[in-house]
Amino acid sequence: MRVARFDRAFLGPLLAGAFAFATQALAAESVFTTLPLATVDTAPLLVSADMRDGVDLSGEWNWSIDPYRSGIAGFHGEAPNRTEQRWLDIDVRKTLAQDNRELFEFDLDHDRKVKLPGSWLAASPEMRHYQGLVWYRRHFDSPAGRKGRYFLRFGASNYATVVFVNGQPVGRHEGGFTPFAFDVTRLLRNGDNQITIGVDSAATAATVPPPVTDWENYGGVTRDVKLVHTSDTYVDSAWVRLTPEGKIAVDAHLDGPAAANQPVQLKVAGLPFDLKGRTDAQGNWRATATAPRALMRWTPENPKLYDVTLAAGDDTWRDRVGFRTIERKGADILLNGKPVFLRGISMHEEEIAANPARVITPDNARALLAEIKNGLHGNFVRLSHYPHSEVMTRTADEMGLLVWSEVPVYWMVAWSNPSTLATARNMLAENILRDRNRASVVIWSVANETPVSDARNAFLRTLIGDVRRLDPSRLVSAALLVERDKVAAVPTMTMADPLADDLDIVSINTYNGWYTPDRLADLPSSVWNLPADKPLIFSEFGADAKAGFHSPDGMQKFSEEFQAEFYRKTLEMADRVPTLRGISPWILKDFRSPRRQNPDFQMGWNRKGLISETGQRKQAFSVLAEYFARKAGEPSK
Ligand code: GCU
Predict the structure, then answer these.
(1) Per-residue pLDDT averaged across 228-232, rounded?
(2) How many whole angstroms from 608 Cα to the centroid of ligand 1?
(3) Averaged pLDDT of the chain
(4) How confident is the model at residue 13 (pLDDT cuts 50, 70, 90)?
């Protein structure tokens, strides 16, 4: 039933032999290799699935750990036998009671309970540092008189996930930060249904990100799970935006028996806009029409969103869309044709809490983004280093914050491993296809702090090419490092990364004065040798401070005073760089990182936040807020 999609073709051949996550550890018969892999090429996209009817499957699930992956492969690597098959559609306790020839070394239906979404790291004390495989199960009643199609959709599950429904294999997915879905229409039965999933958070040399990062690896189902309902033929993806020529453009793809030659109609509520058309033989529709004069463009100051509908046969696709353009002109970033300065900060996907579980509810998202918008007078947020929840990007749309969105190609990735490249390409495509309708998202980033090499350059150029193909309407960047002149009297940095030529925006992470012995007083006299015709974003700079630790005289590191002075001097330095068009210092909130173990100040937290993990503002918070208030008042260059 599946028909080709115009944005689908380019990944296929590369993905065929890919995704080596579990295979590295397990034999070919393992569950992680035999189930069909969900990719943008093989699986439903269900763009703006959160706006579709369906059953929210969040809430209480049963769970059980499987540290030696017995449910994935037997002790000689063979397929697991019945006694280990966690997904079996039987009542284990009853079966064991009835037949002593049977044996099951698990019983998910009678195991511990936990609320999903949320990482298992916060589920119970002994799980705090667990990295590996966990099985989850829940039951749900299938809607009676079922018509149309039913999709099991996950907002995200970290890292590799296998899915079973009513004891039947459904599929698997790799990547911890992007959505995936399966058509389970044929597997549903009247009355009680059960879903069993295995989630493995372990990172390997082949995964994206690799094992060593500077953030906590929150294993588990970290975003919503939903049974999405559609008609037999439905709009699987639609992309609606404003073009630089002032036209509203739409690209849509229908899936189902009536996808071809189907009349379609795009409407924008509140505007005299009614665009009709017909899909082609592949179920694709592409059209543009002049935007009505009354259209209000989306800006951070006026984040106007419109209810957009696309009617196709029995199906109506919905989304809330802001219309704006983003471009680069020389060293300027133009929002709706006007130069804009990005007053931002970086942020991890971690709610304000003493014991976070990576649960981003609308309230949690709003609390974080309000610190930027209202607290810091910011208009920009770098969502690092992986795609954050769609709750976050929708909230940025509503609150009026520009967004940098990134895939976790971070530090040391296996550049020459074709399956790692395939994983990264799919993750990037899943991210772009999910958030192409988000007005807030203006920059796609393909990497962070990656060492220059031919293999790395080729890897990242492939990703850049994918962005340009999937979404030529936004800017592309990556957080790069610079070369430091070892003898110069003042800090002298040069952009020598060849990848800068391929990017729209030169973005640099700099930690002079924190990871270097530079005196803070010397920072303003720094020299930056950078391309003159490209906008610069300082995508990271920062210093740790333990909230409440003060050393007014000594300016000791980890004190609030040191962090505040670090900001003053670095901002003074930044303001002297002529091509500077934005900053996103590291970082809004202290966040969990296993790399940070200083007992006096860190205890597993990176303390570069301007607020503590519980939201306590540090002195540097007001240093940046004053700088942004001044910037907001200034006419952009
Ligand atoms: C790096 C990196 C971050 C890290 C930060 C730090 O630049 O991109 O992920 O947390 O520096 O050292 O605090």
Answers:
(1) 98
(2) 9
(3) 94
(4) very low
Tokens at residue 377, please?
């007078």
Name all residues whose Cβ lies below 6 A of ligand 1.
Answer: 214, 385, 448-449, 509, 540, 586, 606, 608
Ligand 1 atom 9: residue of nearest CA = 214
| Residue 332: how many other CB atoms lie within 10 Å | 17
Peptide bond into 209 cis (omega under 30): yes
Strands 315-321 and 306-312, how do they pair?
Answer: antiparallel
Residue 552 confidence (pLDDT):
78
* Maximum distance among all Cα pairs of the chain, rounded to whole angstroms: 82
- Average pLDDT of span 105-113: 97
C-alpha distance from residue 588 to each of 34, 169, 352, 382, 593 (Å): 42, 42, 10, 10, 15
Best residue among 212, 449, 602 to mutate for probing ligand 1's pocket (most ligand atoms within 8 Å of CB) is 449
Residue type, 298: W
Dist. CA 488 → ligand 1 center (Å)? 25
Reported as a pLDDT band with limits 50, 70 and 90, residue 587 is very high
Q: How far is the CA of 301 from the centre of ligand 1 (A)?
A: 30
Which residues make Cβ contacts (< 8 Å) with residue 581, sequence separation at least 6? 331, 332, 333, 339, 340, 341, 342, 505, 535, 536, 537, 637
Around Cβ 426, how many Cβ atoms within 10 Å? 29
C-alpha pair distances (Å), 631 with each of 479, 509, 564, 583, 625: 23, 21, 18, 11, 10
Cβ burial, residue 142 (10 Å; 0-12/13-18/19+): middle
How many angstroms is it from 590 CA to the middle of ligand 1? 12
Q: Which atom of ligand 1 is nearest to the CA of 542?
A: 13
pLDDT of residue 553: 79
Give CA–CA dist 604/94, Å, rounded.
44
> Residue 553: how many CB atoms within 10 A of its CB?
7
Question: What's the mean pLDDT in 390-397?
Answer: 98
Q: Is the per-residue pLDDT at 3 higher than 60?
A: no
What is the β-pairing status of strands 380-383 and 402-406? parallel
**Rounded CA gap, 98 and 89, in Å?**
16
Q: How far apart are CA 610 and CA 612, in angstroms?
A: 7
| Whether pLDDT at 323 is above 50 | yes
pLDDT for 302 beyond 80: yes
For residue 129, say if its preceding peptide bond is cis, omega within 30 degrees of 0: no
Banded pLDDT at 29 (limits 50, 70, 90): low
Q: Is the pLDDT of residue 8 over 70?
A: no
pLDDT attached to residue 634: 72
Question: What local confidence, expressed as pLDDT, does residue 77 receive?
Answer: 87
Six token digits for residue 616? 């306590």
Instruction: Quote the pLDDT of residue 278.
Output: 98
Percent of the chain with pLDDT over 70: 95
Omega prior to 292 cis, within 30 of 0: no
Quick one: which atom of ligand 1 is closest to the CA of 213?
9
How remote is the CA of residue 499 from the centroid of ligand 1, in Å? 20
Is the Cβ–Cβ distance between 39 and 98 less than 8 Å?
Answer: no
Crossing angle between the packed helical segments 454-470 and 418-435, to the nearest 10 degrees: 30
Question: Smallest Cα–Cα separation from 448: which of 501, 410, 500?
Answer: 410
